[in-house]
Amino acid sequence: MTSSKNAMALPLKEEHAPETEDSDPKIVKFAIVKKRQEDHSLEVGLASFEDAILPHLDAAHNLARWLLRNEQDAQDVVQEAYLRAFKSFAGFHGSNGRAWLLTIVRNTSYTLLKKNRAVDLTITFDEEIHGTSDVAVSPATILERSDNAELIKEAMDELPAEFREILTLRHQEGLSYKEIADIAQIPPGTVMSRLARARGKLKECLATRIGKENR
Amino acid sequence: MNCEEAKKLMDGYLDGELDPIANQKIEEHLRECRNCDQAYKVHGSLIRAIGNGTPYYKAPAKLRERIQSSLREEIAKEPVRNVVEDFPPPFPTEQRRTIPSAIPWNWLALAAAIIFAAIITFNLMPRLQRPGSDQFLATQLIASHARSLMANHLTDVASSDQHTVKPWLDTKLDFAPPVVDLSSEGFPLIGGRLDYLDNRPVAALVYERRKHFINLFVWPASSDAATAPKTITRQGYQLLHWADSDFNYWAVSDVNANDLQTFKQQFETRTPHH
């Protein structure tokens, strides 16, 4: 942005400096025209940003909502993520705007999670507690109840953030393992095993809840 | 492949993310092992059902509005460039260097087409009908004059000898400007310089008048150029324009208007008439 300024910036000798330069309406007008042109190019940049990134607002909100388990936090994080994305949009040259945005949403969400609820990020906290609850609920019973959104929501919300994240990205966004690895910043080889553990844990949580209801 | 290995790869197989070899191996195992095949089918249908049953939190409409207005606020926050810092450019094309890289090329192409059309239109208009074309040139002239004093670049060839300055300029330009020393009239020749004005290289002759400098810009006259002398006063600078059958002259200085008129008369008197 400074190239034209540098081209103009000549060494200034005070004694020869024209004193009334800044009062010249032509020069002021020129500066205004230039400012307007910059405004215009910013607007053009904003338009192309909105065209490319705003269609993924639902995906961004859904991920943030599952990660934060709170509507207000989710909206704040998504708004902040969009601002961050806009500021770094010039550096985005890929074609996968959704994955790029979700990475920013994910990082912004984790920043808030780390600040507010550090305990949520520990993956092992409930594996022992819930892992032992061997309730006699058959897969068929779980399958029967799988249209119960409230039940699934409660079971999902019990899971650690890393599991909620990977389940959302795979089951709801249908992203590939490669995209998930990029967004969650884990080696591609660990996506499958983490996803398997998350699914197993989700089934357990569902079974536990259904078992408690039936008792 | 044994059951243990098949269990590990089951989710990858379900998601269609295995490499072809692993895919083939697990398919072979599932054909042979009833237990694993059953477990895979149950797992698959359950995972699909849970996935479908998971509530999807669509963004509320007001969040979209919030984001769009916050993006516009962000743009508005861009600092206004300091007007005083910006020296007027020698050519209008300079300002187009500052296009951010975020703009897609199709927009650039559109912008280029518009600018191109504007340039064509502007150039097709007869010179004298251009509103403010003198004003624009005056801005360029003052900028050129001021810059010649600022940048320690008053002259390319410093000589009070017109027979040194003239041949030097003749070799650098595609025209031969008249050069006269007016020392005896109180306007000693300081030297000559190449400049660029009105979209062409021009000769700048530098004269001195009681510690003040006069830049006399000279370039060939176009056939339809106005010959009536013109004076413009701007920012404390005097601009005086005249033309003869061969050349356009623009004298720019901070000397008073009378001195500049005298300068013009002396210059014309001493220039060989064609």
Task: Describe this structure as you would to a colleague.
The complex is a heterodimer of chains A (215) and B (274). The N and C termini of chain A lie far apart (69 Å). The model of chain A is unreliable at 1-22 and 124-129 (pLDDT under 50). Chain A has helices spanning 3-8, 25-53, 57-68, 71-87, 97-116, 127-131, 139-145, 149-158, 161-172, 177-184, 188-214. Chain A is built from eleven helices and no strands. Chain B is of the alpha+beta class and 274 residues long. Chain B contains eight helices and seven strands; from the N terminus they run H-H-H-H-H-H-E-H-E-E-E-E-E-E-H. In chain B, strands 1-2-3-4-7-6-5 form a seven-stranded antiparallel beta sheet, with helices on both faces. Chain B is rod-shaped, with a radius of gyration of 37 Å. The interface between A and B is large, with 84 and 68 residues.
Query: Given the C-alpha coordinates, what overall shape of chain B results?
Result: rod-shaped
Helix content of chain A: over 70%
- The portion of residues forming beta strands of chain B comes to 15-25%
Strand content of chain A: under 5%
- As a whole number of angstroms, the C-alpha radius of gyration of chain B is 37 Å
Order of helices and strands of chain A: HHHHHHHHHHH
What spatial order of strands do you see in the largest sheet of chain B?
A: 1-2-3-4-7-6-5
Unreliable segments of chain B (pLDDT under 50, ≥5 consecutive)?
Answer: 80-99
Number of strands of chain A: 0
State the largest interface. Answer: A-B, 84 and 68 residues
Name the poorly predicted regions of chain A.
1-22, 124-129
Profile the largest sheet of chain A.
none
Largest sheet properties of chain B: 7 strands, antiparallel
Would you count the extended β strands of chain B for me?
7
Distance between the termini of chain B: 104 Å
Average the pLDDT over all residues of chain B and give the rounded result: 81
Q: Any idea what the radius of gyration of chain A is?
A: 26 Å
- Termini separation of chain A: 69 Å
